[in-house]
Amino acid sequence: MYSKTLDDPAQIKQIDSEDMLGKVSLLGPHLKLSFDEALKNDVPYKDIDSILFFGLGGSGITGDVINNYLLPISKVPVAVAKANYLPKYVGKKTLCIGLSYSGNTSETVACFKEAVKKQAKTIAITSGGKIEELAKQNGSVLVKLPGDYPPRSALGLLTGAALGCLYKTGLFNTIAEDIAKTVSFLENQKTKYEPTSPVQENPAKKIAAELTDTIPLIYGSESVGFTTANRWKAQINENAKVMAFYNFFPELAHNEIMADCKNKSCIVYLKNPDEKAEQLITNSVALKLMKAKNNKIIEIAAEGDTELEKMFSLIMLGDFISVYMAIVKGVDPTPVGKITRLKEELKKKAKPGPEKIDVASSSF
Q: Which has the minimum average pLDDT: 33-42, 313-322, 354-363?
C-alpha cells in the first residue's frame, strides 16, 4: 500500500525537504568524527570517584546511552541528571559532562554553572552557545561539535565526543576498539535501510508501514532495550509527529500488562538476545498475555557483539523508521513547530532577573 511512496525518490525528496534521511544515515561517521576530535584534547582529570552526565532531549539521551554502555565495565558510579540542578553528592572528584548540542539549553547551563561552583571536573560537549562560553571562562575541557544539525540527529556527534573524553581519562581502555567496531557495523547496517533499498528488502520501510495509523508502544528491557525504547519514542514523536509511548521490562510486567489498548496500539518489543534467560522468559510470557489485548506485536532483536553495537543497531533502525513514518504521512520530519512555539511563549513569560537565561534559544 505504501510502497509507491516509500520507493519513489521524487516523493521522498519533496516530503523530506531538509533531508532528515541523510542526517540519520550519518550516525556512524558522526561517532568517528567526534571521537577523533575529542582525542585531540588534553583531559587532565585523575582521581575520579563518580561520573555524571547532564542534558535534556536529543542531547540528554547521550548520557543514557553511555551510562548503559559503561554499566558492565565501570568501577565508579555513573549517573544521568535531567533537571536544572545537580545531585548533592557532586564534588571535586566528580567528572561532570555537560551535553547540549545548541549550548543554550537552560537546564544544562544551570547545571554547568553549579558544577563549576562545586569545583567538579567539567567537560563541555556542544556546538557553541553559553556552554562553550562557560567552558572557556572556567578552563573546562571543551569539545566543539559541527553545527547546523537538529539536536536529535547529533546523537553520534555527542556520543563519540563524550566517549573520546572518557577514553582520555584512562578509566576505560576498551572504548577505542568498541567505537571502531560500532562505526564499521553501522556503515554495513545502514545499506539495508537507505531509500534506495526497496520496501520488500528494507526492514525500516516495512516496519514504518506496519506502524502507520497505530499508537506505537515501544518496550525494551533494562540497559540496551530501555534506552533504545526511549529513543524510538522520542524520534517517532518528533519526526513522524505521532503519539508513542515507551516502557521497560521487568517493570511493565507489574502494571502495564493489565492495560487494554487494543483499538490502535502496536507493541514493538526491542529484544536483547543476550539478556539473562529468566528475564527473556518473563518478557515472552508477558507479551503473550498482552497480545490478546493488542492488535499486533513486532519483535526486533538487537544485533552486534558489544553493548554499544547492540544499542546503536536499534537506534539506527528506529531513526530510519521514524522518518519513513513521516514520509508515509506526507509530513516533513524536520520542523518541530510546537517545540519552537513553546520556547517563544516561555520567552514572553520569562521574568527579568539578575541572571536571565535565554529560553528561546534553547534547543537541547
A: 354-363
Does 116 share its domain with 247? no
Q: For 176-204, what is each residue's pLDDT tens digit?
A: 999 999 999 999 999 999 999 999 999 99
Q: Is residue 107 among the annotated active site residues?
A: no
Q: Verify that 90 and 10 share a domain, yes or no.
A: no
Q: Which three-class secondary structure string do you get for 178-214?
A: HHHHHHHHHHHHHHHCCCCCCHHHCHHHHHHHHHCCC
199-221 per-position pLDDT tens digit: 999 999 999 999 999 999 999 98
Q: What is the pLDDT of residue 360?
A: 40
For the four alpha carbons of 300, 306, 311 and 314, in that order, the dihedral sign comes to negative
Exactly one of 13, 254, 288, 296 is catalytic; name it. 254
Catalytic residue among 238, 275, 307, 309: 238
Residue 140 falls inside a structural domain: yes
92 included as an active-site residue: no
30 is catalytic: no
